[in-house]
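Sample intake sheet
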Amino acid sequence: MHIDDRSTNVVLAGVLASMVLAASLSAGGWTDASQGNAMTRVVDDAALADETSGDNWLAYGRTYSEQRFSPLTQVNDTTVSRLAPDWVVELPTDRGLVSTPLVVDGVMYFIGGMNVVRAVNATSGALLWEFDPEIRARAGQMRAGWDHNRGIGFWKGKVYAATWDGRLIAIDARTGKEVWRARTFEPDNRSTSRAHRRSSRAKC
């Protein structure tokens, strides 16, 4: 099964979670995100290189190979017609979603308009946390990329996001709180940053 980027205006349908989590919801190591988001999986080089596990969607292209191919077999040409949304998250201020959601231990992480990062329970759609880097404060200096961000990265319990004004921010995946930030270019630079994040030991 291949999953490609899709753009939508105001909703993120739970059918995405169903496609990615078809096997993991019944796995013994999974913990309901609504019960404290008790992550057990370590996302590191080994996890991101593992082509055999379909329990999670850990990176932009699923694994380091970026083939976007899932080894799950429950969704196929026979069963795909039975897929239907389980939940919907209203995103009235997001005019475009172009990034690939990440799924780690039953939690879906994604970035939307104005670089806002959210975590939702992938089985219920309940919002767990929202991180707003307050990009609107610098919107007057922006010249491109008003709504789109190509994606986030995940590494050892942290979500990594790049903001348009050149900040690289590490966010605690459990709490949604900022851990650290770094400048990738000077504030008065007219450049923008909206590339997806690839996580690796050398970078994180």
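Comment: The domain at 11-136+145-183 is CATH 2.40.10.480 (Thrombin, subunit H). Confidence is low (pLDDT under 50) at residues 1-36.
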